[in-house]
Amino acid sequence: HGLAKAGKDLGWAPDPLLRLEAIVPPDAARMKTLAERLKLSTAEADRLRHWALATAVEPKTTEGELAKRLYRGDRQGFVDRLRLSLAAARMRAVEDNEALLEAGGFSRLLGFATKWEKPLFPLKGADLTALGATPGPKLGEILRNLEAEWVEAGFAPDRDALLKRAAEALQAG
């Protein structure tokens, strides 16, 4: 797989869980069983599960698209996926120029993912009740929809813009 060489070349600390991920298929149910058999800690079992649930990332993925996936998923799961993809691409790059380009893409995305910090959604249920919303399932639905819009817009709408959208949603619904 090339993980040990990539890790050495790139200065990664030895990581037994990453090495385990390199040799098993990403299947969350199997990871649970494997974690039990290996008597892994809860944190280690969670890391394996998050890696298995993280969808593969293509090397041409934009940072904006990756940020959306990181927000909805687990950062460490994606970091592990990207490290494994980078190691595999580096190994293939010896004989394949396309793999060299892929390695560059994975390296860029890995750098982004390791530095990324999850933004805090600017609204809470209390903000909607202050606008006149009644606590309950409808309020939760509006809040989830606003959060989804915020994520899709690249986390750009600020609190005021979201409050305006919330007021519109409350009037419409």
Q: Secondary-structure map with pairings?
A:
Blueprint: H1 3-10, H2 16-23, H3 28-37, H4 42-53, H5 63-72, H6 75-92, H7 97-115, H8 125-130, H9 137-152, H10 159-172
Summary?
Helices cover 70% and strands 0% of the residues. It is built from 10 helices and no strands. The mean pLDDT is 96.
Mean pLDDT: 96
Radius of gyration: 20 Å
Reported for the largest beta sheet, the result is: none
Using the alpha-carbon principal axes, give the shape. elongated
Secondary structure: helix percent: 55-70%
Query: What low-confidence regions span 5 or more consecutive residues with pLDDT below 50?
Result: none
- Count of helices? 10
Q: Number of domains in the coordinates? A: 2
N-to-C CA distance: 54 Å
Strand content: under 5%
Structural class: mainly alpha
H and E order: HHHHHHHHHH
Give me the count of strands: 0
Q: What would the keywords be for this entry?
A:
173 residues; mainly alpha; 10 helices; elongated
Structure report:
This protein has about 170 residues and is mostly helical. It folds into two domains: about 5-115, no CATH class; about 125-170, no CATH class. Helices cover about 70% and strands about 0% of the residues. The chain has ten helices and no strands. The longest helix has 19 residues, at about 95-115. The chain is elongated. The relative contact order is 0.11. The mean pLDDT is about 95.
